[in-house]
Model the fold of this input.
Amino acid sequence: MAVKLSVEFAPKWPVLTLKSMAGLADELGFDTIWISDHYQNRNVLVSLAVVASATNRARIGPGILNPYVHHPAYIAQAVLTLADLAKGRVVCGIGAGDALSLAQLGIERSSPVRVVKDALLAIKKLLRGESVDISSHSFKLVGAKISFGHPDNFPVYVGAQGDGMLRMAARLADGILVNFSDEEALRSARMLIYRTSLDAGRNPSDLDVVAHVPVSISDDPSLAKKAALPYAAYILAGSNDAVLERLGVSVERASRIRSAIVRMDFQEAKRLIESYADKFAVYGTPAQVAERLLGIRSVGYEHILIGPPIGPDPQKAMALLKSEVSPVLRDG
Done:
């Protein structure tokens, strides 16, 4: 099976720059273009409309929306509307969201597995044109039904780290974005997904299991690492204590990194994450990145999502990924 490479953009650039980046990703042959959702960046749904206009081949979708901020009915509505611009190419990613960002919005991320499960089931029914009644921990639907849309296949992915979310996604989702960079953590997650999907009576090969990995690639390895550190810090800060314990990160260190991010002291956050950066991001020269991604492929991932920052020069980094990394993964 040929390995797939997808890319995720954080919409921090002006929309015309994002349009250019999406067009390049489409031209280079990336499988899916995901747009992340954080209130600090530009709006994910407006950005996706721009991405739709700039692409002809790649699948596109939000990665990820959370049901604490976005009501599932409006997530389904957005997906169906986006299909007007990119028919047959729309996917949807949902998850529990970034705990730090939610806290800044005054939102408590409680019962995440239950809430995401309820949202997943509701969204899938709404996309099929069905009426939905559900009372969940953070939202409610009472006879809700969307009155437009085309018959289409809208795969719904769940972003996951913890075992509970991984199990739920393995039973119910169309795909899973496994948010780890550490090879052993990815191996463990892949095995858990495989066993759970079998126990649920599903064919594991029907699930698109994606390694969602922050990547920074450059001919200059020091620049690549420098660009990766803030993203690694955010991933660590958003991970729960069980995940951090598995990765060998103390609760005290995680607390200090979270505090630095809240204070917007990014120099301190980068200093604190540096010794753990390899566990939360893949970075380096094309050869170094290819070696890390080949290791990830070897533990069962035939689809790799390249997350931000991509590189200190994202356009050049995408070209390096396709010209120097992708052939190694294909041959490997």
In short: The first strand starts at residue 4 and ends at 9. The chain has one domain: 4-217+282-331. The chain has a mean pLDDT of 95. The radius of gyration is 19 Å.
